[in-house]
Write a structure and sequence with these properties.
The complex is a heterodimer of chains A (820) and B (302). Chain A has 820 residues and is of the alpha/beta class. Chain A has a domain of 285 residues: Anaerobic Ribonucleotide-triphosphate Reductase Large Chain (Alpha-Beta Barrel), CATH 3.20.70. In chain A, 47% of the residues lie in helices and 8% in strands. Chain A is built from 30 helices and 14 strands. In chain A, the strands form five sheets. Chain A has a five-stranded mixed sheet with strand order 3-4-5-12-11. In chain A, strands 8-9-10 form a three-stranded parallel sheet. Chain B has two domains: 238 residues, TIM Barrel (Alpha-Beta Barrel); 56 residues, Alpha-Beta Plaits, CATH 3.30.70.20. Chain B is 33% helix and 23% strand. In chain B, helix 6 packs parallel to helix 8. Chain B starts with a strand and ends with a strand. The chains are: A alpha/beta (820), B alpha/beta (302). Chains A and B meet through helix 24, helix 27 and helix 28 of A and strand 1 and helix 4 of B.
């Protein structure tokens, strides 16, 4: 009964519309893409429905049953990884140039029962839900129930974590005051620097052997732990080499079987590459891409870290190979583009592993947040753009697929030509690339203590968060629902939705006589909630260090080999924990409304105001409309509201930034990311004093509340830059542009000017949705016809049709910056 | 203090001159173009604009009106124009901004403060401020002061004018303006009168004088199907422009649109827009060709 396969009617390929929204379809093609190979690979990638593979779980369970207790934890993890690499079904598709999949075939996702074990019910939900469906057969569910679930019951990281959390934390967590990332997946958000283009796995093994040879068992109390960690790293290098060699063998087999001479040659090339890579450092463009891909797969097979893995400044890493080969005549621009297209499609073949404990209505995303950084600065401070950067923009424009995410990095040194090329892609309305400002994030990283070189080699991964690529563990610990903290402040620590106490008692609001009374209470509440969150995040952090190390990831992150410590255990050069603060717009506008109407104009008493909020403004439409239309809101370049935003932001920094995360020199920092969490956070809240009704989503990132910005994008930019972005690890500004605002070449240049202006003033990130409401309504009415409609929101792109009704509604409501 | 009635200040304006601009709209015009897309710009006095869609019938305005000029009837909210003194109390209390006053008195200082907020965008894009309306040159006292202030601060200044003012005024403005966006509607003076209630001799003469004086000018032509898109008018216009002295003029064709319909409804004005049609792509292409025949580059949009 679960075998039903949805038959997709193929969406009509539409010509570029007058809105400039969609790609130009070339005649006689299967779909977009530079040539038939790419078109075919893309078609498979886009049309294959995501499925779940239980193979990894079966291998792992069997291995654990047989070997548990025989080895140290890191070695056990590494051997488990090796075992899977030796046995897993491998895939080499027709037409492919870049090879290997995490699952047995494209879009097939393994599970990670050691972290979180899906229940039979989870599988049924995943198999049948309308949004983000993952198919799985009944026989696989039966097998999982028989073999996998019984073994892992009570042993998963998730269960162990939840069995230890304090009551206060649980109360706040259940109220939706924050989320905890690490209860579903392992800490991740990792990006690489350039080392894997100079060193192969054998080089890493050599480094490890040298370290092992010098172990000082007489004086170093950690010698045994280090030895186990190094052994594990060494084994995991072997695992990836074995994995590659199996692909080489498969390619050789296929080559011997095919009569197509062209394909035979390609397969032989693939085999040759997989015999060398990743054991040795890559020597050409093709090998360099395959090298990254094997490392990428290794890290996401070993464990299930948040946000997959990122290649970092991929164009900068590939440029030397490209330039050398172009000069030598062994590579053409088209070939390079074809290889990059193959890589792009590979990433798209890997949907995010689904969560556990899900409900049918809850939706996630297929996006696993690999984010390719394009442009920016080199580590010597010079402009990082190259031909490869422009080729990547072309690939993005032509393929318009969900993954990988991509971003352009526009420093003051970045040529206008590149910015213009990027804004032209933005105009296509695919929702990307998003735009980042290296001049500011380098300062952010240096403020956090990174060296100049490491900061310059850093960038943004996942959505908007900064890190020193290849040298830092920057773990996102979860989202903080800042408006909800105001909500409980206005209810003296009680969650008005449940009546339960979830915060601390900060005083009956009836007794607040000034705005600063109210704000002080909010500040105390904020402090308490953040404190609760940090305690448990630190605890989970240690759990991973002890029980779920990531030896392969540790090989490729700087200083882990050097220190003999795991990625999760302070091995990296830098160790950051982020808390992502949501809803700055909502909380600012709410405070502004209270300040203006209650404490200044005194047109309404606080008690009456709060009662109206509690009853979701029922029968109080005049009050609600007055608030909405007569309150200075964030995003209008109005100092009244913007000052409040700055105060809230600075206080978040004061409370979170610099707190120790119990790793050596490790610190907490904040960023202002919300992804889609602002929708969930809105659902757990009643109405807010800014006139927002109960259940509606809160504002995303550092964007103004939906519809609150009525003075156009330049005013938004001015408001946003009153915050000192350097004090964060990333802010997020979504701007929705109707196509009408960028019809002409001149308009697109002006969009570039707007970006430059924002960055001159110190903005960290901006992204644009170029769509029109009519298109979105049409997409809701007839989803089948709009399968390719990509929408960027809150730090990532997703297919409009894959979003639930709430998110779709949000996209539609977002302020339209149309000017006639 | 010197003040003028301003009905809008629009930021991130990308269609009214070079770069990213801010546009200051002065209230009051001495033309009455039948197709005007800013009908609230014509009257030099404050006006009430009422949007029934936004009205939640709370009655706050009726209660607030000191003249008892407002009442709810079966037809919705009605204003007794004999009683209304345009004091604006109704708009002040309206929770949804269904009732709004068009026109706000603003001083040089206030206007400058808003202009300067956009500084970074001017710098990055080669933009600046555009004074539009209405007819900004009906507000010379305040306008010249602002123009001089902008000049001191190095902010690029453009004036969007219909040119129906004293020649001296225009020349005086030219001393403190970097660019004129000069509107031309049509060449036949009688037709011009029919459609705008004004003859065009002065407008054409002023354009010649301004051109001779060496001012930088972009000519803007609202293109309305069936009104001024005839080959005859286009050729005459092109010929006239081609014969102007000074550097060769750029022409921006602004196709008519009926987006202003809602504004007419809000003002309670008779809606004439139904009579007009937007020019089709063929018409636009034809117009561009007609201008090119006279060596003039015409583009669509500002």
């Amino acid at each position: 009964m679960f075998e039903k396969i949805k038959t997709h009617t193929v969406a009509p390929e539409r010509a570029a519309t007058s809105e400039g929204n969609f790609y130009t379809k070339e005649r006689n093609t299967i779909g977009p893409g530079m040539n038939e190979r790419i078109q075919k690979l893309r078609k498979i990638s886009v049309e294959t429905e995501p499925s779940l593979s239980i193979e990894r779980a079966l291998h792992e369970t069997e291995f654990y049953k047989e070997n548990y207790g025989k080895f140290s934890t890191p070695v056990m993890r590494a051997l488990n990884f090796l075992n899977h690499c030796q046995k897993k079904t491998i895939y080499l598709g027709e037409h492919e140039l870049i090879v290997a999949e995490r699952g047995p075939k494209p879009k097939s996702v393994p599970t990670f029962p050691e972290l979180t074990c899906h229940s039979v019910e989870d599988f049924h939900v995943l198999n049948t839900r309308e949004m983000q469906r993952y198919t799985i057969s009944q026989s696989d569910i039966d097998l999982y129930e028989k073999k996998v679930i019984p073994y892992w019951q009570g042993k998963t990281m998730r269960e162990r974590i939840f069995s230890h959390v304090p009551h206060e934390w649980k109360a706040a967590y259940e109220a939706g005051l924050f989320t905890e990332f690490m209860e579903q997946r392992a800490p991740g958000h990792t990006s690489l620097d350039g080392k894997i283009y100079h060193k192969g796995m054998l080089d890493f093994k050599n480094e490890i052997a040298n370290k092992m040879a010098r172990l000082d068992y007489l004086n170093d109390p950690e010698a045994t732990d280090k030895a186990e960690q190094w052994k594990a790293m060494d084994i995991s290098c072997d695992a990836v080499i074995v994995f590659a060699e199996r692909h080489a063998a498969l390619a050789e087999n296929l080559a011997s079987e095919t009569n197509d001479l062209k394909r035979k040659a390609e397969l032989n090339d693939i085999a040759k590459i997989c015999r060398r890579i990743p054991a040795y450092a890559p020597e050409n463009f093709w090998e360099a891409i395959q090298m990254y891909w094997f490392v990428h797969l290794g890290t996401i097979t070993e464990l299930n870290g948040w946000d997959a893995m990122n290649p970092g400044h991929f164009d900068q890493h590939l440029a030397p190979f490209y330039e050398k080969e172009i000069a030598e005549g062994t590579l053409t621009r088209d070939k390079a583009k074809e290889l990059l297209s193959c890589f792009w499609i590979k990433v798209n073949n890997h949907p995010a592993p689904p969560k556990v404990g899900i409900t049918a209505s809850e939706s996630g995303t297929y996006n696993d947040f690999t984010n390719i950084n394009i442009g920016g600065l080199k580590s010597d401070g010079s402009d990082g753009t190259s031909d490869v950067s422009y080729i990547m923009l072309e690939v993005i424009e032509e393929l318009h697929i969900l993954q990988p995410g991509n971003s352009v990095h526009i420093s003051a040194k970045t040529p206008d030509k590149f910015l213009h090329a990027a804004t032209k892609v933005i105009r296509q309305g695919h929702g990307y690339p998003s735009v980042f400002n290296p001049d500011i994030y380098i300062l952010e990283l240096m403020r956090q203590g990174k060296s100049l070189n490491d900061a310059r080699e850093g960038g943004c991964s996942g959505c908007i968060e900064v890190g020193a690529f290849g040298k830092e563990a920057y773990l996102l610990t979860g989202y903080l629902n800042v408006p909800k903290i105001l909500e409980i402040t206005l209810n003296n620590g009680i969650n008005p939705i449940t009546g339960k106490i979830v915060g601390i008692k900060t005083g009956d609001p009836k007794n607040f006589t000034t705005f600063s009374d109210l704000y002080d209470a909010f500040f105390k509440q904020l402090h308490y909630i953040v404190d609760q969150k940090m305690r448990v995040s630190n605890y989970i952090d240690r759990m991973f260090a002890k029980y779920a190390p990531a030896p392969f990831l540790s090989v490729v992150i700087e200083d882990c080999i050097q220190k003999g410590k795991d990625y999760y255990n302070g091995g990296p050069r830098y160790n950051t924990s982020y808390i992502q603060c949501c809803g700055l717009g909502t909380v600012t506008d709410s405070l502004s409304a209270l300040k203006k109407h209650v404490f200044e104009n005194k047109t309404i008493g606080l008690e009456k105001f709060l009662n109206a909020v509690l009853k979701n403004f029922e029968g109080e439409e005049v009050l609600r409309q007055t608030i909405i239309n007569r309150t200075p809101f964030f995003g209008n370049d109005d100092d009244y509201a913007d000052t409040i935003a700055v105060q809230v932001y600075n206080d978040l920094v004061a409370i979170i930034d610099g707190q120790p995360n119990i790793k050596p020199d490790g610190k907490y920092h904040l960023n202002m990311l919300s992804t889609t969490c602002h929708v969930y956070f809105g659902k757990v809240m009643g109405a807010t004093p800014n006139g927002r009704l109960a259940g509606k989503s809160i504002s995303d990132g550092t964007s103004p509340s939906h519809g609150a910005d009525t003075n156009g994008p330049s005013a938004v930019v001015k408001s946003l830059t009153k915050l000192d972005h350097v004090k964060s690890g990333g802010t997020l500004l979504n701007q929705r542009f109707l196509p009408g605002l960028m019809r002409k070449e001149e308009d697109i240049k002006k969009l570039g000017n707007l970006i430059r202006s924002y960055f001159t003033l110190g903005g960290h990130h901006i992204q644009f949705n170029v769509v029109d409401t009519a298109t979105l309504h049409a997409a809701q009415a007839c989803p089948e016809d709009y399968k390719d409609l990509l929408v960027r929101m809150a730090g990532y792109s997703d297919y409009f049709n894959d979003m639930n009704a709430d998110l779709q509604q949000e996209i539609i409501e977002r302020t339209e910056n149309d000017t006639f | 203090m010197l003040e003028s009635l301003i009905f809008d200040i629009k930021r991130y304006a990308i269609n009214d001159g070079p770069g990213i601009r801010i546009v200051v709209f002065f209230k009051g015009c001495n033309l009455q173009c039948a197709w005007c897309h800013n009908p609230e710009s014509i009257s030099g006095s404050k006006e009430k604009m009422y949007s029934p869609v936004k009205c939640i019938r709370c009655g706050s305005c009726v209660e607030a009106c000191p003249e008892n000029a407002l009442a709810f009837t079966d037809d919705g909210l009605v204003t007794n124009k004999d009683l209304c003194v345009l004091c604006g109390k109704c708009a002040e209390v309206c929770p949804t901004k269904a009732m709004e006053m068009s026109g706000k008195s603003r001083s040089v200082g206030e206007i400058m403060e808003i202009i300067e907020k956009e500084r970074v965008f001017f710098d990055q894009s080669g933009g600046g401020v555009t004074f539009s309306g209405g007819e900004p040159l009906l507000h010379t006292k305040i306008l010249f002061e602002i123009l001089d202030e902008c000049g001191k601060k190095g902010i690029h200044r453009a004036i969007d004018t219909a040119g129906n003012v004293k020649t001296e005024t225009l020349l005086e403005a030219a001393k403190r303006t970097d660019l004129f966006l000069y509107d031309l509607k049509m060449m036949d003076s009688d037709l011009h009168f029919e459609w705008t209630k004004v003859k065009n001799e002065k407008i054409l003469h002023n354009l010649e004088v301004l051109s001779t004086a060496g001012a930088k000018i972009i000519i803007r032509i609202p293109l309305i199907a069936g009104v001024n898109d005839t080959d005859e008018n286009l050729s005459k216009t092109a010929k006239f422009i081609s014969e102007l002295e000074g550097e060769r003029k750029e022409v921006h064709l602004l196709p008519y649109h009926n987006i202003a319909l809602n504004k007419y409804l809000k003002l309670g004005k008779e809606n004439l827009l139904d009579a007009f049609k937007a020019p089709g792509n063929e018409t636009l292409a034809n117009a561009i060709m007609k201008f090119s025949e006279f060596g003039i580059k015409a583009t669509v949009g500002g």
